[in-house]
Amino acid sequence: MNTRHTLRTHCARHLDTMRAEGRYRDFARLEKIADRFPLYRWHQPGGAPREITVWSANDYLGMGCHPAVRQAAAAAIAAYGAGAGGTRNISGTSPEHAGLEAELAAWHGKPAALLFGSGYVANQASLLALLSALPGMIVFSDAMNHASMIDGMRRSPAQRRIWRHNDLAHLEELLRAAGPAAPKVIALESVYSMEGDVAPLHAVCDLAERYDAITYLDEVHAVGLYGVTGAGIAERDGAASRIDIIQGTLAKGVGVVGGYIAGEAELVDYVRSTAGGLIFTTSMPPATAAAARASIRHIQQDTALRDRLAERAAALKAALDRAGLPRLPSESHIVPVPVPGAEACRRVARQLLERHGLYITPINYPTVPRGTERLRLCATPFHTDAMIGCLTAALRDVLPLAEAA
Ligand code: PMP
């Protein structure tokens, strides 16, 4: 046995299978044009850069391009340098980190908050730490929960019970069956990233109270976008005080990068003191924290962007419906258009880019189950009526290619 040869052969075969199934991921090189978001330059292989419209950006409000955020980042780099230079424990906690944590806690109406390098790590590290805290824990996980939550749950010693997506009767059945003795955690998202639908938070909290479970809510696709001050769906629905841990990202609505949790002081401090994903890694650059703070300040004070986002999402859905195009019944700014079959979905996305200058990511297994592949459209406040018109015309042009396949 020659380990290097065997491993290389295995990797090459696996990649060939992914290519054959249309699941091999090519990363298109996209250059964001900060003053003209959602326009980007596509650096196509062997060709001149071409201006295109992006419909799959998670910078949902364009805050990553906002002048106040860019200025805050540039000023902070000038003042503090580019990197944090240490873990949180080893010289990597600046006033920007501490200030941002205090502001995140206040935003979500919680006593404490804790920053991580990304939303992925926030979920993975926090769930792993909390679910390892007590013996015999059971975690009740919505079937559509993100890979980062699944990763944290799987690594923990807790038993995992999966409830059918947004199905309260199934959740209750599983909670009841677990019996009263086991410590229980219910883990869910508010806006589901691949469906665009929204969890019934109060009803889940009612069950949590009835069966003595704590609640862990991923608000990654809602932070900045929903609620009076933009804190998310829990704020919008008046449910924040009923959620034990709210997890969020600074990478989507806030437009920068980083993740966090907010909740009870003891729980947050326990994660801070025990989670490997926090302890053993360099903290985010202070300039990143400064940019996120500027972004959040703007989001809290100015409702115009999220009002415009809601209006644009409605306009996008109405235009798709008028054009007779298929879409999943989303309740949010995320609008999935089903194109079953990984190869068909990939080909349609390619044609949209090459023929029409529209970038829309094809979503396939393992992100969604096989056979439910889709194009994931994200409206932003900056997608105009003309852009929506181009999109519907382009989809009508290329979707028959999928059916013909
Ligand atoms: N949770 C959900 C529901 C997500 O969709 C994602 C990423 N798309 C994350 C967590 C991870 O967030 P981040 O990109 O900040 O790592």
From TrEMBL:
<comment type="subunit">
    <text>Homodimer.</text>
</comment>
<dbReference type="InterPro" id="IPR050087">
    <property type="entry name" value="AON_synthase_class-II"/>
</dbReference>
<protein>
    <recommendedName>
        <fullName>5-aminolevulinate synthase</fullName>
        <ecNumber>2.3.1.37</ecNumber>
    </recommendedName>
</protein>
<keyword id="KW-0808">Transferase</keyword>
<dbReference type="InterPro" id="IPR015424">
    <property type="entry name" value="PyrdxlP-dep_Trfase"/>
</dbReference>
<dbReference type="InterPro" id="IPR015422">
    <property type="entry name" value="PyrdxlP-dep_Trfase_small"/>
</dbReference>
<keyword id="KW-0663">Pyridoxal phosphate</keyword>
<dbReference type="Pfam" id="PF00155">
    <property type="entry name" value="Aminotran_1_2"/>
</dbReference>
<keyword id="KW-0012">Acyltransferase</keyword>
<feature type="domain" description="Aminotransferase class I/classII large">
    <location>
        <begin position="51"/>
        <end position="389"/>
    </location>
</feature>
<dbReference type="InterPro" id="IPR004839">
    <property type="entry name" value="Aminotransferase_I/II_large"/>
</dbReference>
<comment type="pathway">
    <text>Porphyrin-containing compound metabolism; protoporphyrin-IX biosynthesis; 5-aminolevulinate from glycine: step 1/1.</text>
</comment>
<dbReference type="InterPro" id="IPR010961">
    <property type="entry name" value="4pyrrol_synth_NH2levulA_synth"/>
</dbReference>
<keyword id="KW-0350">Heme biosynthesis</keyword>
<dbReference type="GO" id="GO:0003870">
    <property type="term" value="F:5-aminolevulinate synthase activity"/>
</dbReference>
<comment type="similarity">
    <text>Belongs to the class-II pyridoxal-phosphate-dependent aminotransferase family.</text>
</comment>
<dbReference type="InterPro" id="IPR001917">
    <property type="entry name" value="Aminotrans_II_pyridoxalP_BS"/>
</dbReference>
<dbReference type="InterPro" id="IPR015421">
    <property type="entry name" value="PyrdxlP-dep_Trfase_major"/>
</dbReference>
